[in-house]
Amino acid sequence: MSSRRLRVPEGVQDILGGHCRTKRRIERDLRGLFDGYAYEEIETPTYEYLDVFAHGGGEGGFDSAGLARFIGPDGGTYALRPDMTVPAARVVAARHAGGVGVRRISYVGQVFRFGEYGGGRHSEYTQAGAEVFGSPSPEADAEVVALAIKALKAIGLVSFQIDVGQVGFFEGLLDVVGSRCDLGPGRRAAIMEAIDRKNAVGLREEFAKGYLDAGGVGLLTAAEGLYGDVGSVTSALGRMELGERSREAGANARGIIEAVKDYGLGEYICMDLTMLKGSYYDSGFIFRGYAQGVGFPILLGGRYDGLTGSFGKATPATGFSMGLDLAMAALQRQDGMSPQAVGGGPREVLIGCGADAKAAGVSVADGLRRLGCRVETWIVGGPTAQGGDAGLPDGTDAPRSPNAGVGGAGAGATGDIGAYAPTDGARAWASRNGPTSGAAGAAEWTRIRGLLSEAESLGKDIAVYMAGEGTALAFDVPGK
């Protein structure tokens, strides 16, 4: 058998167990956040005509080499969607041709783009985002920035930063430099790349080529420092000789940042006027979200007023999208947590019961599930799934003190054992020292030790032993 049948291709991944549950929890929380802000969720096709992506925005669209393309049964050329913003713009242009008004749209879906390996980015990943169509106001821009910050907070991130810029600022600055120097397309592109990557060495190499005069070098050198808090960047702008386009772009970025402060979120914002286009359709204000421990932006956003025009219905638009794979990587690195621990998921419970207590065990399990636990049941005192005996043959020692922590606090302070009514899982407290003494008690402790061993191997938090029809004993699992 070919070894490839057991592997997945480069750039894609299996998402399993706790990692998958965390991802679904994040998706659910983001959907709830967007819905609370009255964003209407949409779901677009996984694939569309190639022209939707290859020629969107009238600027060439996405690099065709990065698109997953195929020929359909009708002979047409299709592509798996490389992002969610372009389909959202198509929906607005197609469905609201008589007048867009202001529409708020959100989405959570898979996107496909080759050539984006490393740092947690894959050829297939989940993108979540929100877009506002029909409003040219900086207030709409501030809303999507605030929503992006709230989205990062909602998924559990603490250490992150949002950099806000304006593509018109640096383009205007190069217009001024180009009016004084021989600044052809190749030189302009080299300068822009060095500035965008904050590559001081690369910028000095361009200076050394001699095509910039002293004034051009001075402007570009000053522009390198246009990053940080709003006050320091504004002070630096006041000392620069700027054209009208750059002045307006800088004022636009400052105004949006001030509006974000009205949401009480100014602490997460930095101003970065050296930031250039992230996507081909960016047209003005832009922003990026960075998290500690991840070398790529986990969130991109901004204004893209020309995008719907490529579908025949021009309307202003602003929004953001987040890569959930990178966001989850940031969550893991934030506190060194495993994917299973990220987000504090539901308690993992293993219930053990003898054949005579199976019905009661099933009832207790259902009650715990209603309390939000994830519950498996296991028949103790009989064969295990691995074919061995569930009990430990010489296991007469009692496990460590039982803990009644399933479902809430209360018994832990008294040392009582947690007991759950088998009818509905409601908690009662029984002051018991454990199973009965003598030979029957030793056999019962052996079963409990076997149950704890199995629970530990399965990564459970709590083991529950059905001591009888009316009582369930809850134990902390060793190592949890």
Q: Which spans have pLDDT < 50 for at least 5 consecutive residues?
A: 382-440
Protein structure class: alpha+beta
Helical amount: 25-40%
**Strand order within the widest sheet?**
1-5-6-12-11-10-7-9-8
Mean pLDDT: 80
Computed CA radius of gyration, to the nearest angstrom: 29 Å
Report how far apart the termini are.
40 Å
Question: How many extended strands?
Answer: 18
Tell me what the structure shows.
By secondary structure, the protein is of the alpha+beta class. The protein has helices at residues 17-36, 50-54, 85-95, 138-154, 167-178, 185-196, 200-208, 214-223, 230-238, 244-261, 324-335, 358-370, 438-457; strands at 40-41, 47-49, 69-71, 77-80, 103-112, 124-133, 160-166, 227-228, 269-272, 285-291, 299-303, 317-323, 348-353, 374-379, 417-420, 427-430, 462-466, 472-476. The strands form 4 sheets. A 9-stranded mixed beta sheet has the order 1-5-6-12-11-10-7-9-8, with helices on both faces. A 4-stranded mixed beta sheet has the order 14-13-17-18, sandwiched between helices. Strands 2-4-3 form a 3-stranded antiparallel beta sheet. A hairpin with a 5-residue loop joins β3 and β4 (77-80). α4 packs across α10 (244-261), α5 packs antiparallel against α8 and α6 packs antiparallel against α7. The radius of gyration is 29 Å and the shape is elongated. The relative contact order is 0.11. Mean pLDDT is 80; it is low at 382-440.
